[in-house]
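thought: fold this chain, then report.
action: predict
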Amino acid sequence: LQVMQDFGVNLVCVEDGIDSSKDAGKLMISVLSAVAEIERENIRVQTMEGRIQKAREGRWNGGFAPYGYRLVDGKLIINEEEAEAIRVIYDQYVHTDIGANGIAKYLENHGIRKIPRQNGKNPLFDAHLIRLILKNPVYCGKIAYGRRKTEKVRGTRNEYKLVEQDNYLLAEG
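observation:
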């Protein structure tokens, strides 16, 4: 509505008797907008509470399964074909000091390639992915919720960024 008004266009709803060029129409739109915003916020809060409860119970909260796992009936099951690479990554991390770049090169030199999935086409393990795997509590049998939070960028209208959180829910999974 604001964009329309910026261009000098008014909203007229014949069926509902709303005309944004008149004061009564502006009032009606404001009231309906406020009610819709409250309802949207209630739905968001209830959805988040449901996700938090699911995480507390150690259940997967949605999205793609982490590499080395597959989803079966909403539960994470080890995918042995992919898990071998995960075991090598952790073995190298624990028994060497070559870092994420070194582990990525080790995997490449030993012919260990990433099995392509629906959410990525790169057949190589890069250092960034190695770090994500090493930081992911799922590989320790935990379910985390709230590790990252979307925050609005100050001074913008619709721009958001992902921010790592220090305090998040961690449950046996």
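thought: worth noting. Residues 30 and 147 are 36 Å apart (CA to CA).
final: tokens above.
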